[in-house]
Design goal:
By secondary structure, this protein is α+β, with helices and mostly antiparallel strands. The chain is 24% helix and 28% strand. The protein has five helices and twelve strands. The strands form three sheets. Strands 6, 7, 8, 9, 10, 11 and 12 form a seven-stranded mixed β-sheet that branches. Strand 1 and strand 2 form a beta hairpin. The longest helix is centred in the N-terminal third of the chain and has 14 residues. The protein starts with a strand and ends with a strand.
Length: 173
């Protein structure tokens, strides 16, 4: 099946929740079907079903360390521990979950960056890591539930924590 995703401002390359919702509808129409493969701008995401559980196979988008653009530092008004860039997003690593939770960015300043979104993250206290996702270029100041950011978060934290099973929490309001 062909699949496309749109924000209020642009077409995006991946949206996890909408992919799962689309697969759910298809599974309801074909109860014996075990998996669904989509054709999209981000490749061929596949959703498998095991009982009532749907599992989405996300693409991996590892990030590499980079120099922090001035607009990124000004947009957050604080110096992060690390800045990385994936093919689509900047990832900004902070020292604590409380720093990520308390961010109040200048979204207009972040909108000048050469990326779709800005992932903010830190090691969690009661989970492996926390995150928030800001996407002003997509017309979304802050996305409260962002599956696609995990294409970058998971490779980073899996390597950093030497784990393959991770518990994440998005701290958006």
């Amino acid at each position: 099946f062909d699949l496309r995703w749109f924000t209020p401002a642009i077409e995006v390359d991946l949206c996890g929740h909408a992919t799962l919702a689309s697969a759910f509808v298809l599974f309801e129409a074909a109860p014996r079907k075990r998996s669904v493969r989509f054709h999209s701008r981000s490749g061929q995401p596949t959703v498998a079903r095991e009982g009532n559980i749907l599992m989405l196979d996300f693409p991996s988008r590892p990030a590499s360390p980079c120099r922090a653009p001035a607009a990124l530092l000004e947009g957050f008004g604080t110096r992060p521990a690390e800045v990385l860039k994936s093919q689509r997003d900047y990832m900004v690593v902070f020292d604590s979950a409380s720093e990520v939770r308390s961010l109040n960015p200048d979204v207009a300043k972040l909108n000048t960056l050469d990326c779709l979104g800005i992932i903010t993250t830190a090691r969690g206290r009661d989970c492996d890591f926390v995150s928030r996702f800001f996407a002003p270029a997509a017309g979304i100041a802050e996305d409260p539930a962002t599956g696609s950011s995990h294409c970058t978060l998971i490779p980073f934290w899996a390597k950093r924590l030497n784990k393959t099973d991770l518990l994440a929490r998005q701290l958006s309001r």
